[in-house]
Write a structure and sequence with these properties.
The chain is of the alpha/beta class and 483 residues long. It has twelve helices and 15 strands. The longest helix is centred in the last third of the chain and has 24 residues. The protein is globular, with a radius of gyration of 23 Å. The N and C termini lie far apart (54 Å).
């Protein structure tokens, strides 16, 4: 049994390099450093693309009062980004505006949740119309939107994945998928990849293999992890092993179009089956790529699992499904769905009228705005622009991704596997923010910049983002040389 899911996950870690006479922070000799500093001065003046939207006036509490309330009344586990946390006021498509009216290009999309754009007019209009009609009624009653939505969603999935169960979050969807797999197979053990994030609930934490999410309480009973096929940091694979326009810098013995590492990772998985779990298991849960890959974001396909030529038994989806509205879904076969119907399983808010109308409008916007095609075209351009910077800067260990989901892994140098120190990562991150670009962070050591903007981003926006990131790297280089 195999799952596919679209919930947050972090990137992995990669190598660095240094050589005699070459700056540790960048593959630039001292003779060319001055020339690059002049280019940096130009890059730091990167001009933000125009936007024809003007945000409304901010009318809530002063910034300092907001900080005090957050520290006093919100859980300290809810951390904030940046030294001076952003106080965001309004959003429009790929743009965010803070309380003082400053505009930012959003390359993180609310942890890859805003799929079609902040306050997308089609989605907003659909939500406003439904607000005046019916907010909520239990799914024990029929209402038009739930039937209309699940039919539209199921039509996008291959047979026999045609039965939908709507939930409120990705963690909840994965929790239910685990439950379904165990009920249907009458087995208990599940296998996941190391480095994957599948939720923060007590049930799903067993499948989340990132140490910083573990809280020292029992959570992994019946869950076993196996090695992630990682052609950059893993033991096998290299420069011919990715289904991508950008390959890893690590060399390998594989011939073009033939990945020998594939067999080695399969053997390792067989070893997990032989040593860590019973002969029969409930399921194997995996993301097609260890990030959010649904709703056209990869560009080549609507669902990430389609890039691998497999049809899972259960698919879970969240994040971009509602463009920021809290909803998620589990889609499976009639046979597996029937096993859950042996007893009562009920979700009060799952499939409520508001969620279904929003989800339906998101699917319409993806199709009508050509966002899958845009993800492929703009994402490919952005990936290649960041790959050019990898060739130039020694602290970029790896650039990887597909469509509008890109990871930029930062390292001390390309000869080692050490991540760039947290302080240096944060300085680059802060510089990008100060120049108007918001990126995510991820990775086992928080060493990877996550680039996953709303799918409405333009090529002009992508060029601006690459120029800003280049300027931030040059500032880092200058700090390194100065010290």
């Amino acid at each position: 049994m195999c799952f596919s899911l679209y919930v947050p996950v972090n990137f992995k870690l990669l190598p660095p390099a240094s050589a005699g006479g070459v700056c540790q922070a960048c593959r630039l000799t001292p003779d060319t450093l001055r020339q690059q500093e002049l280019k940096s001065s130009f890059s730091m003046q990167a001009k933000m693309p125009p936007c024809d939207f003007s945000p409304g006036k901010y009318e809530s509490y002063p910034y300092e009062r907001m900080l005090k309330i957050r520290k006093r009344n919100l859980s300290p586990s809810l951390v904030t980004y940046y030294k001076k946390p952003l106080l965001l006021h309004q959003g429009h498509m790929q743009w965010l505006f803070d309380y003082e009216g400053r505009r930012y290009l959003d390359l993180f999309a609310g942890v890859v949740t805003v799929s079609v754009g902040h306050c997308h007019p089609k989605v907003t209009a659909a939500a406003q119309k439904q607000l005046g009609r019916l907010w909520h009624t239990t799914n024990l009653y029929m209402h038009p939107s739930i039937q209309e939505y699940v039919e539209k969603l199921a039509a996008l999935l291959p047979d026999p994945l045609k039965v939908v169960y709507l939930t409120n979050s990705g963690s909840e969807a994965n929790d239910l998928a685990m439950f379904m797999a165990r009920i249907y197979t009458r087995n208990f053990d599940l296998i996941c990849f190391r480095g994957g994030y599948h939720g923060g609930s007590p049930y799903t934490l067993g499948l989340t293999c990132i140490g910083s999410y573990k809280h020292g309480v029992a959570n992994a009973f019946g869950c076993q992890s196996t090695m992630l096929p990682d052609v950059f940091r893993g033991p096998w694979g290299g420069s011919h092993c990715r289904d991508s326009l950008v390959q890893t810098i690590r060399k390998c013995s594989c011939s073009q179009g033939c990945c020998e590492a594939n067999d080695q990772y399969i053997e390792q998985f067989k070893d997990t089956l032989s040593t860590c779990v019973p002969k029969a298991i409930a399921g194997f849960i995996a993301e097609p790529i260890q990030v959010q890959t649904g709703f056209g974001r990869t560009g080549s396909h609507f669902w990430g699992f389609q890039t691998h030529g497999v049809v899972p038994d259960i698919v879970t989806m969240a994040k971009g499904i509602g463009n920021g509205f809290p909803m998620a879904a589990v889609v499976t076969t009639p046979e597996i769905a029937n096993s859950l119907a042996q007893n009562l399983h009920f979700n009060t808010f799952g499939g409520n009228p508001m969620a279904c109308v929003v989800g339906s409008a998101v699917l319409d916007a993806i199709a009508e705005d050509g966002l899958q095609k845009n993800s492929k075209e703009v994402g490919t351009y952005m990936l290649l622009e960041f790959a050019k910077l990898r060739e130039k800067f020694e602290i970029i260990g790896d650039v990887r991704g597909k469509g509008l989901m890109i990871g930029i892994e930062m390292v001390k140098n390309k000869d080692s596997c050490e991540p760039l120190p947290a302080e240096e990562m944060s300085q680059i991150w802060e510089d990008c923010k100060d120049m108007g670009v918001l990126m995510g962070r991820g990775g086992i050591y928080n060493q990877t910049f996550r680039v996953k903007p709303p799918m409405c981003i333009t090529k002009q926006d992508a060029a601006f983002a690459a120029e800003v990131f280049h300027a931030a790297l040059m500032r880092h280089l200058e700090r390194t040389v100065a010290s």
